[in-house]
Amino acid sequence: MLSSSRSADRDLAGILQGISVGLLLVYLATELKLLLPPALLQPAWQLRAGEALRGAAALPLVAGVLLLLARRFDPQAEGLGRRVVLLRRLSIAACLGFLLLIPLQITAGLRQINQTTAAEARQLDSVRRVAQAIEQAETPAAMNQAIAQLPGLPSDFEGQFAKPLDQVRSGLLAQIQPQIKKLEARLAELRRQRLFSALGIFVFDGFMSLAYAIGFAALASSGEDKPSLLQRLLWKLDKLAGWLRRPRLAVRRQQGPVSEDWIRAMSDENEDSFRR
Question: Cα–Cα distance between 218 and 65 in angstroms, integer?
Answer without folding.
Answer: 10
